[in-house]
Design a protein that fits this description.
Layout (H helix, E strand, L loop, with lengths): L1 H4 L1 E6 L4 E5 L14 H19 L24 E5 L2 H9 L15 E2 L1
Antiparallel strand pairs: 1-2, 2-3, 3-4
Amino acid sequence: MGLLSGMYIQSLDENRCVVVLKERWWITNPFGSVFWAVMGMAAELSTGALVYAHVQGPKVQFILVGMEGNFLRRRKAKVTIFVETGSEVLRSIEQIVNPNEKHRYIAGNSQR
């Protein structure tokens, strides 16, 4: 679905991930603004890609268990979603002592 929506990772390093949603008519609602679900997919991609930038090895698994967003204004054109909490993600990963335990981490997503 992300590919169909036209989203792509513009930049990714250990501290920051930027995901861009291209302007597409099929990701807009009847009011002309971008569907919140599409922006949610882009936010999930940005967070997941940032975690994968830090994690090495085939035994690492993670799942997004919740999401919170603030929509400040209608978006009708290109949307850029970024997450800049790479150091917090790395710190949380380093705190995992037993890989068989479940851990929960809450990261902040931002949107432009």
